[in-house]
DNA sequence: CATGAATGAGATTTCATTCAT
DNA sequence: CATGAATGAAATCTCATTCAT
């Protein structure tokens, strides 16, 4: 029946073995239902049904509905932040003579894939974190420990190599993060106005970031 | 007691006179509670209490809780989208010899003010629109009729004036929208990483958009 | 239909007027059901039904089931402990030349009436207090402030009047309380072995306490 | 680790050999949990855990939770009622010239030891018997067959020996039972008001019962 | 015979909505 | 037209009991 699995689902299926099959099914169902309806609008009954387990079983694993929300953070870390951490420590693998243009395009396309692959999980966690300070703290911590340092290191290296003007690392970091976020959000929310065409748009985005729009 | 009112509250207080006083109080309370807790987590009882009316009265004006959400769209339009429309038709007021740099800075600072002034309303409507297609359609329509045309017109004029390289209007539009959105979201969500300092950051943002980061 | 009301029910019906009729019905139903089945075995659905209200209404007044248990303490105080307090302050009304025998018989018969009148409430509160320290503390405090002092004062007066041998007030107090408690519990639990016949038994009890059983 | 065992636990450990080791562990755990929390508030899961067996095993031995409660009656009989029966038939062991005072003190101290030794079991069974008629019947039957006859025989003998005034055996029995019960309950429930000091208090209790309080 | 994951019936709790006053 | 007590449908949570392994 179900042949195609999302990256998120694959991540959960490949999780630690002290996570039972039923638990995995519950997590997958939770992502599906919650990313479609939001945390509060998702019914434990519906999640249980989608997971093919009884509501009692759902309770066995997650005594409070909120626990189910919090349980989605580890898979998110595994699927979204782990690759970033991994990449940070295997930087040496990158082509030594990589140009700035190449680096930026690589940054956008890899990060975009991560966003795409974790759409559902990210949607739940980010949106709910707006109202749950604990979740927000977790996300802030993760970003501060993974994405921001890796991004800033790249920028500093390029400044050292004199490929980038001497300017505030934070400013450049903000510009790049804004473009990534903006591209992702705008093309999701206004697909007619901003259709998605990654190759073309990343190219133009990078070109403008590098050379500006001024004639 | 309460002397300082938010722009949103001022907007509602100045609304049409066929909106009764009680109704206005309810809307103001709804914005406060819903922007703090989200639509679903907000209790009609709490909104009524905050508004200083009975729950019965609340339901006289808004028979369904959802009606209360939809009722927030008009104030949002009045306060956020109306100024943009107005500005579009009063373009003549702008200094004729306005430079590209000035135009961009003006765009960012005016739009940022609008975002700040309508934080609460925007938060509610945007976040809820993710789960309510009707709301999403409304927002898409409003953006398509106001923000996007005004932005694109500015870009086209600047291209015609040859201040901007010959390039896709949509691409430039996306870049600018991304920066605006990114600046706003990132400094709200990661205030430590990306502290807010509008004058300085708008300046640098515009500089990079104009000239790029390449040395 | 229902003509005879228990003293407990009368107490609740005569409670403060800021207690609504529905709330009173709920409390009466709670006493009936809980004294019959115990707190945990009592179903909120059954209490609501017995009270003639919806479960929603029950929740309006007592958000947690436990609140309903704790709400029974005030009526108990009113009905059981208030008379004792009142009596303490109207001691002067007692016949001045009251004999020891008369005092003891009066003590047993009045206290026994109180126990009888508050059977249900006492049963709930006492039995549940065994497992809820908060309740136990309340009962201990009430006894320490009302029953014990009034009892000890009577004993001391009788010792001063040299009607009672010079002996520990606590010991006499314990003897009297034990008889009261024992008479009440034993005749409830073993009605065949210890049938209840207040006039006769109080007489004999007092006689033995006064003169002993030794020939 | 655990060196000190309660009398109840010793009783269970020494029970009949057609009671398996696991069963004994379950019973001991049941006493611990149930005497702490009460029957209904005790979770089968918690009892199983405390007993070091699986819930499945618990239900193999006691298919219904209530069976676990009823299974506590035999140990109670063994530990509490058996000694009383035994004593009844070994009356000859008592010193022939035992005085009334001695007999009473012996009665109180031996019964008090039994109560202390079986605190937990008694608490569970007595409290639950209030809501379970079957249990209440059992307790009534046991008391009627053991405690009451032994007590009444002692009283009758003392009346025959003319150590006690000619009076109703039941009345004297009730007085003695009340004092025993009262001493035990009051010093458990109000340890501050009625501190426990067996030697001293039994002495004074017996003295009053024998000679009264009248000067 | 032991296990403990899974169950589901039923308990409590929630809260938008109604309606008599 | 305003009130807020009352509602009940639906949600979450509980836990004794079952049963495949």
UniProtKB/TrEMBL annotation, chains A, B, C, D:
Keyword Nucleotide-binding recorded: no
Keyword field: DNA-binding, Repressor
Domain (HTH tetR-type): residue spans on this chain: 20-80
DNA-binding residue intervals: 43-62
Family matches, as InterPro entries: HTH-type_Tx_Regulator, HTH_TetR
DNA-binding in keyword set: yes
Pfam families assigned to the protein according to its UniProt record, in alphabetical order: TetR_N (PF00440)
Full protein name: TetR/AcrR family transcriptional regulator
Organism of this sequence: Evansella tamaricis
